[in-house]
Design goal:
This protein is of the alpha+beta class. The protein has a single domain, classed as NADH Oxidase (3-Layer(aba) Sandwich). It contains 6 helices and 4 strands; from the N terminus they run ααβαβααβαβ. The protein is globular, with a radius of gyration of 16 Å.
Amino acid sequence: MTAVDRAVYDALRARRVTRRMSDRAVDPETVGLVVRAAKFAPNAGNRRLQPVVAVTNGTKLRLLRLISPGMIPVPQAAVVISIDVGRAASYGFPPRAPGLYVDVGTVAATLLTAAQAAGLGACPVTSFSRAAAGRILNLPETVQPHMIICLGYPDPTGGPPPMPKP
């Protein structure tokens, strides 16, 4: 195994879900690095039907958290992975084609690994109101959010994560 292979393997092995994040801001360059990694995710036919949207605005992050009972961390940034069902239909995919969801998973795995490599903690969230998230992010009706990846620096103090405020 080469040194590069070993570094990749070690990053994969060390990656953990981070449910408690510090309030340290994540700089836009680091968020951009994680988002750009999505283009390297394997996907069906190289069609890229899973757009990703970076969220760094504090108000939008708070709103996403309010509509996401599964969002335990308080992230400083997030990346929302969607499915563009309009484009998918233009390629002949039915709205619930399994491959569309498999590709959400490959994008998520790639983003989680990129976050780890960038020194960030990350936590995937699938328990949220998709309709409300689409409105918060001003997504077109044909773009449906399916996963939120919370980003932030791990909180070194440990302890249980704070619960969302209603």
